[in-house]
């Protein structure tokens, strides 16, 4: 029995994950958004790690193997912030991949978020959150599950979250990578989605706006046939709403991979 | 061999070269020594309680006076002491063991089978678990009570190292988010075995007591050999069997001996005695403001230093306990998010366990809740007709009748790493008096139905006269087939 050939992780037509235009220092930097969507069954830690590795070391060596042609960008720092995982979680994961710890920083916005912001107005909470991120227009920011803010801040709408947090955050960096959970939109005949519910509408509106603002969407989902020993799920790469308006000279290569995550390693295969 | 007169004091009561080594029992002071100024061998100079004494090693910066510890300049030593205490908690706590898969420290849920389903042999420290249940049954509350009872039992394990902090004894503390304080009195007691087992244990207890009769019985041969002359071959076979059994049980015994107090079996018809006290369990009402709840949890954790903290939320969002505004995302998700952050801050000694009935939740709220827990298990009790079907099949083995399916939606550590761990309809659970069992699920074969189908062709032979009726029987459902066969036979 032959094993399927392992494939390299590629997002753009120049065979890169993050094109050199996005990593190089420019006088008038553009602001771009990548979107990673995932479910509870296929969580995106390995993909986020690969993207951090690409930002810090030049390429996703943990996925594609070592490459001498790829060079790191020492000029910028990558910032990771998560509303569900603590600081140590990312430090431990990236330490295992031997990613240079000077190339990234982890912001802890999980700890005591409720105690600090329970009775504050939403504008103030979002402003304080924005201040935590460094204002470096050459840098990359990775933000995990910002949609949780819709639940944690009373009365916050999707439009407010976009206008007052996501768009200003995009302007603070060159590349914003948002990882969002889309379990809500999974088809389930037994439990249909109540589209008349205002909370559901806000969540749908927020994720839709992220898709429209992004240049690439990476969707992680499990197999329709259920659990399998040799396949964890599929990674579908598709163009986002801004891919046609993007000033980049390269374009997104739409593709679908199967992937297998075991322990701390992930392998990609063509579907 | 040396001879000395009774009452003669060795070496004039001083430790020295002439003192008999090994005569002193560790931890014991001979009678009459307490008030004397004699120095014990190998124990360093002893002084009066009023005098301060100098300690060696990393303790040398500490000064002990009047039984209290005064903090002199201890910076590095202090941190070292804290680390040592934490390590001591992990190493000596009866309810903490390393996961066989990831090496992280885990604690038991109180249900051995559930620990196995979690694959780590427990819930990793710093992680949270949600048990969901569909329908109106209350199996989840049993798991919550077992989880709580296991924490209380850790506290009462005899011979376990008690790491004290803040003055009170114990190694585990429970925080229950509920105003129903009877919860503590309803916790199940440890299963002591069947009546036979209890009798046997009483007999073995009696035999272990030091008496002349027991001593003579121990040295003698088994009674079976005394009663009648046994063929020497059988005797050899007995000995070989014993050797084999001893070998087999050695490996499992070694494991069990290492973690013998890790997991207990609970009898849900009994109650834990004595009922947990305030030093073992703290209740926090969920109807307080969220910031107050979180602050209280944080304060209790800080107060219960060096203890394993098990936070329990039984029947989360139960309408009888929670106000209607808790069903809004901003309140319920904020509470769980806050608790998650506390558990992650105290990840070396804290776990969170919650149960919820999913029928009262919207899809959005359910998904948001599941998202914030590290492990999610869903209990789906069988409908009545399925239970009747199983009871009919397992008529002779009523212990095999399962009560529902157990779906795994998330596993700690593995799921967050990105592994696909959703296992639906792979496990089934059964709740018994003495155990909550989880087995692999397989659809049982209905022997009655298959045997009746097998009989059916035979009936065709007898009903040659009415072919139309026979063909009609084939098209009918299997339930009606035997009835028609009977009619044809009579005909």
Structure description:
Chain A has helices at residues 20-23, 45-57, 61-64, 87-96, 113-117, 122-132, 149-152, 158-172, 198-213, and strands spanning 32-38, 78-82, 104-108, 140-144, 175-181, 216-221, 233-239, 255-262, 265-270. Chain A has 271 residues and is an alpha/beta fold. Chain A has a nine-stranded mixed sheet, sandwiched between helices. Chain A has one domain (20-270): Rossmann fold. Chain A is built from nine helices and nine strands. The model of chain B is unreliable at 7-80, 161-167 and 458-491 (pLDDT under 50). In chain B, helix 9 packs parallel to helix 10 (363-372). Chain B folds into three domains: 95-191 and 266-440, P-loop containing nucleotide triphosphate hydrolases (Rossmann fold, 3-Layer(aba) Sandwich), CATH 3.40.50.300; 222-263; 450-490, no CATH class. In chain B, strand 3 and strand 4 form a beta hairpin. Chain B is globular, with a radius of gyration of 32 Å. Chain B contains 15 helices and 16 strands. Chains A and B meet through helix 2, helix 5, helix 7 and helix 9 of A and helix 8, helix 9, helix 10 and helix 12 of B. Chain A: InterPro entries: ELP6, P-loop_NTPase. Chain A: One of its GO terms (biological process) is tRNA wobble uridine modification. Chain A: Belongs to the ELP6 family. Chain A: Pathway: tRNA modification; 5-methoxycarbonylmethyl-2-thiouridine-tRNA biosynthesis.
């Amino acid at each position: 029995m032959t094993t399927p050939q392992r494939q390299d992780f590629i997002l753009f037509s120049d065979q890169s994950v993050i094109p050199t235009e996005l990593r190089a220092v420019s006088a008038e930097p553009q602001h771009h958004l990548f979107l990673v969507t995932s479910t509870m069954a296929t969580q995106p830690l390995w993909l986020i790690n690969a993207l951090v590795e690409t930002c810090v070391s030049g390429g996703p060596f943990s996925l594609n193997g070592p490459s001498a042609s790829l060079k790191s960008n020492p000029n910028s720092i990558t910032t990771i912030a998560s509303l569900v995982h603590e600081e140590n979680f990312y430090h431990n994961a990236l330490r295992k991949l031997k990613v240079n710890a000077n190339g990234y920083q982890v912001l802890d916005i999980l700890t005591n978020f409720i105690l600090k912001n329970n009775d504050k107005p939403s504008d103030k909470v979002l402003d304080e959150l924005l201040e935590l991120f460094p204002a470096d227009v050459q840098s990359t920011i990775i933000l995990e599950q910002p949609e949780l803010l819709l639940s944690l801040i009373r009365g916050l709408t999707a439009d407010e979250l976009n206008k007052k947090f996501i768009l200003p955050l995009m302007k603070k960096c060159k590349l914003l990578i948002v990882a969002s959970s889309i379990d809500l939109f999974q088809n389930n005949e037994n439990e249909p989605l109540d589209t008349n519910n205002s909370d559901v509408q806000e969540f749908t509106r927020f994720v839709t706006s992220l898709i429209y603002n992004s240049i690439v969407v990476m969707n992680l989902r499990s197999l329709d046939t259920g659990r399998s020993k040799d396949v964890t799920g599929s990674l579908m790469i598709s163009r986002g709403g801004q891919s046609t308006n993007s000033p980049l000279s390269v374009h997104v290569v739409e593709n679908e991979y199967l992937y297998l995550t075991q322990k701390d390693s992930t392998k990609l295969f063509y579907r | 061999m040396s001879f000395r007169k009774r009452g003669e004091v060795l070496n004039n009561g001083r430790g020295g070269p002439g003192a008999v080594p090994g005569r002193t029992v560790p931890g014991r002071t001979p009678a009459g020594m307490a008030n004397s100024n004699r120095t014990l061998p190998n124990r360093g100079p002893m002084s009066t309680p009023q005098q301060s004494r100098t300690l060696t090693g990393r303790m040398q910066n500490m000064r002990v006076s009047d039984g209290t510890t005064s903090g002199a300049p201890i910076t590095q030593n202090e941190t070292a002491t804290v680390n040592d205490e934490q390590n001591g908690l992990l190493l000596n706590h009866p309810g903490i063991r390393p996961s066989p898969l990831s090496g992280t420290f885990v604690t038991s849920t109180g249900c051995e089978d559930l620990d196995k389903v979690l694959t780590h042999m427990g819930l990793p420290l710093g992680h949270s678990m949600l048990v969901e249940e569909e329908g109106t049954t209350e199996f989840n509350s049993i798991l919550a009570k077992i989880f709580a009872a296991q924490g209380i039992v850790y506290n009462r394990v005899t011979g376990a190292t008690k790491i004290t902090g803040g003055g009170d004894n114990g190694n585990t503390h429970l925080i229950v988010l509920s105003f129903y304080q009877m919860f503590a009195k309803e916790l199940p007691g440890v299963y002591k075995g069947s009546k036979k087992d209890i009798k046997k244990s009483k007999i073995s207890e009696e035999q272990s007591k030091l008496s002349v009769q027991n001593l003579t019985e121990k040295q003698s041969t088994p009674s079976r050999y005394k009663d009648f002359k046994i063929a020497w071959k059988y005797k050899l076979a007995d000995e070989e069997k014993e050797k084999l059994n001893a070998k087999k049980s050695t490996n499992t015994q070694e494991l069990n001996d290492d973690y013998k107090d890790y997991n207990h079996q609970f009898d849900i018809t009994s109650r834990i005695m004595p009922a947990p006290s305030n030093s073992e369990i703290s209740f926090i009402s969920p109807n307080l403001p969220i910031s107050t709840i979180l602050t209280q949890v944080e304060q209790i954790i800080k107060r219960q230093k060096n203890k394993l903290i098990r936070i329990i939320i039984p029947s989360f969002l139960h309408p009888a306990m929670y106000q209607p505004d808790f069903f809004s995302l901003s309140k319920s998700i904020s509470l769980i998010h806050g608790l998650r952050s506390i558990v992650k801050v105290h990840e070396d000694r804290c776990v969170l366990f919650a149960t919820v009935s999913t029928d009262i939740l919207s899809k959005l709220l359910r998904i948001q809740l599941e998202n914030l827990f590290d492990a999610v298990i869903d209990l789906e009790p069988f409908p009545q007709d399925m239970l009747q079907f199983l009871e009919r099949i397992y008529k002779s083995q009523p212990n095999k009748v399962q009560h529902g399916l157990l779906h795994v939606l998330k596993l700690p550590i593995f799921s967050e790493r990105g592994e696909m761990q959703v296992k639906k309809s792979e496990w089934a659970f059964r709740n018994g008096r003495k155990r909550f069992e989880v087995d692999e699920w397989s659809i049982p074969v209905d022997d009655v139905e298959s045997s009746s189908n097998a009989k059916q062709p035979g009936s065709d032979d007898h009903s040659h006269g009415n072919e139309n009726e026979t063909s009609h029987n084939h098209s009918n459902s299997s339930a009606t087939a035997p009835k028609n066969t009977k009619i044809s036979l009579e005909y």
